[in-house]
Specification:
Bound molecules: adenosine-5'-diphosphate
Largest sheet: 8 strands, antiparallel
Shape: rod-shaped
Number of strands: 35
Length: about 850
Amino acid sequence: MADDGALSLHPVQAESALIFSALVDGAGRVLAGVFPDGQAPDHLAAVLRPPGAVPFAAWWAGVCQGAQEHSPQVALACFDGPDAVCSPVRVQVTPVAGRDEALVLCIPAQGRQRSLIWALHHISLALSRTDLDRLLRIVRSHVLDLLPATTFYIGLYDQEAEALTLREAISHGEPVGIAEANPHEGLIGWVLATGLSLHIRDIQRDPLPAPYVTHSALPLSHSGLLVPLAAHGEMVGVLSVQHVEPHMYTDEDLWLLEAVASQAAVAIHEVYLGREAESRSHMLTFLQDFSLQLAASPRLPDVARVLADALVTLAAPDEVRVYLRSQQGSILDSVYRYNADGNPPFTSDWQHSMDPVAATVDREAEPVVMGQLTRGTRGLVYAPWQPGALAAYPIRRGDQPLGAVIVLYKEPHLFRQDEQRALSLISRQTAIAVEWAHYYADLAQRFEQVAALYALAQQVTGTLDDRDILQLVVHTLRDIFRCRACVIALRVDDTDEIAIRAAVGVKAEWRTSARFAVGEGVAGRVVETGKPIYVADVHASSSSLIFDPEVHSVIAVPIAYKDRVIGSLNLDSVRTNAFSPSHERILTIAASQIAAALEIARLYQQAQERAEKLAAANAELQHMERVREELIQNLSHELRTPLTYIKGYGSLLQDHDLGPLLPEQSTALKIILEKADTIQRLIHDVVLLEQISPETLDREPADFDTLIRQAFQTVQVLHSAAPLTFSLQTGAPGHTVSVDRGRLNQALDNLVNNAVKFTPEGGEITISTGVVEGGVSCTVRDTGIGISPEHLSRIFDRFYQVRDPARKGAGGSGIGLAIVRRVIEAHGGTITAESVPGEGSAFTLLLPAADHLPAAETPPGDDPPPEDEQTS
Ligand code: ADP
């Protein structure tokens, strides 16, 4: 032994281990370090040891804190250091009265005990690092090395399953396979129930503990030992050696077997703990995977599938059924069934109502777990086969039922706590995913509705026939809301009646009897009050409103235009609670679209009717005009010949060729001839007017300013006697027009004649030219009496004359300006008039430039620069 070594006690009784470790000084005194239950004591109060003695040859002892009377009875005391030596010792622990200390006495073991302690130490080492199968084999081989036995077994007790499995069993020297035994029966049952060891010296003679039931998987031999396998207060099994001979075991053998059992139990417990830790870590990974998959499943059918998938992986059932509710809650949206025998494994829409067990957990909000269905309960769940076990969990968020899930097994199945915890956790996680899927579906639906409304608005405003509009609306709304029927009823004109104007999904008989009074039925009530109506459950409501018996919920909103309720828009469904406030909002928008569209259609119809009337009146007018023209033409032609006679004979009379005339006769004849001249001019003008057209024009290219200047010169000559000032301002040099000179001069003559006629003495008449876009202009301006606005627009009409005292004696026939307009328009130009009564008038004609004429035809540019000419 080294002087400075560390002494340690290796417990061989693992359960109540005292790990003893001490520092020994040069004189062999232990200085410090007792570790009961792995905890360092505050101090080693005193060490007693025979001085100078060889450490293992004699006893030695210490006082330590925390050591207890039942601390290990045997140990391997080892000294560390260069020459580590170990020796089996028996340990006695004696508590010190009144103090938290104990006297620990180590006595070197002797004889068989010494070798047994060594054996236990080896077992202890071997057990500490192995799997369960190997562990059980090691226990068996060591026990059978130490003790004689014709029967051996290690019974492993599964407290949760209430099952006992016999392992490493030997019966009459022969190995027996793994066997099940009843943990509540026989001597095993007694040991498990009491936790005490049993030493049977002779089964024929010994009194056996009550209640002793003979039934046991392995028959008990003549003598035997049964010791409990217990670790950390938990019963993990039974260890037994038996022999066909009586009196084969001593008390020391029992002590040995107990020591082995104690170590084995701790090791088995550790294996269990290891397994549990492993399965927990698996479970964590699994749940994490499951959460990730759920998070990636925004839609309800995906959630159902992920859940079914997870349950198949986790619980390996024969069938899984998942029932998820839609966001309306009342109907099952996603039903998934996985069947281990099925192909393909997943089928959707399998069933539209929950099976009774799922319905119960959904209603009661409590899981149902049945590991072993009895004959009476097997028929609880519909299945082509009779299930042996089932577990059903509600899927809920708070008070809100979102569905249920059920797993089914053909055979009875032990639902372990861990498994149940996992199932419950999975159901809870699914509930969150379902809620999200609802939000997602709601969002998607709203988006769809808004998009549909937008499309509807576009279609409706693009349609002008009100019947088409309404039909389009009812179809679109029914599609958007996926409901049974959609109806639009409108007030009949200004009566107290309402009539169905468009409907879809309604039975024919309801459509035909479709007239009712304001205040009657849902639509009537909405029109009467101007307020929406929503009946969530028609059959539960006491409302007197009449419904088709098929209908379970109804929503109706008023159709109003400018505060006037013109009708009602109704939707109904075969489901209860089918509508929500968001439906009402969307319907209200749709109703206002309908109202606006109807108003537009009404206005359009009105406009169209007016246009038709106007077109008819116009056609009538044109017809009259033609008739009048024809009449005038005919009259004019017919009047020519008699007029020639009148004028001819008038001249003869005037010239006295037919005899002398009295002075009064001569005066009368003069008037007759003047009036005949007037009629002849009129006829000439009328005929002329009819002759002017683009086809009859004799056009030639002319320099515009030159043309006007020449016309001005003629005007000056013609009106030289008039007491007026004439002036010319040319402003379109080098601009060529293609004109009929004669006709254009005539038009200018008419304009100038009028100006002369209506301009009092001292007035001014100006002719000016200019350039406008695409052509040239010529304005004849005077400082005359002017024309009032009400006449201005009509003076170009044929035979239109302004009649007022200022123009008395002006003569004329109202055809001059009509001729001007005809001439200018025949040239492709326009004529306009402006006037301020009392100040003067201006007539402006625009002619297109002769751009299309070949350059050769354009007269040479001999234009003088712009100039002003004036005469009076
Ligand atoms: P009329 O040959 O009877 O003058 P017109 O067609 O030439 O017929 O003119 C139509 C009407 O326009 C005339 O009644 C006349 O009073 C009015 N009018 C035409 N030119 C002028 C003018 N420069 N100033 C005032 N009134 C005019």
